[in-house]
Amino acid sequence: MMSSSKSVSSSGSEDDNEIRRGPWTLEEDNLLTQSIANQGEGRWNLLAKCSGLKRTGKSCRLRWLNYLKPDVKRGNLTPQEQLLILELHSKWGNRWSKIAQHLPGRTDNEIKNYWRTKIQKQARHLKIDTDSREFEELVRRFWIPRLLQKARESSSSSALPIQNQATMPVSQYSAAAITPPPCVHPTCPNYLDQRLEQHSNGSCVSFSEPKLPQLLGYNSNHFGNGLDTDEFGTFTYDYGYHVNSNGYDNETLNMEYPVDDCQMARHNWVNDFACDLWNMDECCQFSNFKK
DNA sequence: AATGCGATCAACCGCTCCAGA
DNA sequence: CTCTGGAGCGGTTGATCGCAT
């Protein structure tokens, strides 16, 4: 497949009817953009013909949706976005387009690539099947707390324009403001046991946690309310998406998070990661998780 | 400088779904 | 009901880039 624009022969004497494949040129991009400006999106086969592009309608559609469309966001996924992907994938699996609907400006292709190159790679390294219960636990106990921490850090430094500071004062989620209980690092093999012990002896703490949608910088009217804490000291997010106006569906998202901020306040391990959360070496430390 | 290799991402393919004739 | 074309989805792959040797 995609054997480098194969229709263009070296002699330049390509067949006029031949369909071009492979990377798009600037001229093609301009032509497609102009055509869409003139006649709008949709009817891709027709558009491909009318535009003079030697591309299939399908190819035009993909190029527009994944690359040329003005609201397509470029650049690395933020911790907030990564967190949301983990959450939504745990609920919907490989429903990339559905997941992408909840990440404005991100395409299903981009999310799919992220999942395969980052998440699945890590899982493979740990010899964990991404469909397994083990993987679920890994995400819940290790990656999500880490991403939450990163999300908080980026929020408190006001680095993210999407963060709505008005609805989420920094002090509300600042780990430093919390008196930490006995520290338990998520990478500790006894992590869960210790947490359960904390709970049974009453030392398990909870505190006011911003709701995930707020943490992610979404306007609260995108979501319903429904934060709860269960008997094991885990948060349960339970919110439905508003229908219609935002394109969200009616389904409810349920996720549980352990109350981990205490140990995150004491361990500055997040700073050990540069831009890449998914540091393989650090991930290896979590091999103890597999028992 | 040349080469090899892994990571990333853009793009293609095959398939399904759906609406309209 | 069947057929057909458009649209969209998920899986896969080739090109490219950057880093290591």
Automatic annotation (TrEMBL):
Protein name: Transcription factor
Residue intervals of the HTH myb-type domain: 16-68, 69-123
SMART domains, per database record: SANT
Region feature Disordered, mapped onto this chain: 1-20
Organism: Arachis hypogaea (Peanut)
Low complexity composition-biased segments: 1-12
Top-level taxon of origin: Eukaryota
Record has rRNA-binding as a keyword: no
Record's keyword annotation contains Transcription: yes
Record keywords: DNA-binding, Nucleus, Repeat, Transcription, Transcription regulation
GO terms for MF: DNA-binding transcription factor activity; sequence-specific DNA binding
Domain Myb-like: 16-68, 69-119
Record's signal peptide: none
Subcellular location: Nucleus
Gene Ontology annotations for the cellular component aspect, listed alphabetically: nucleus
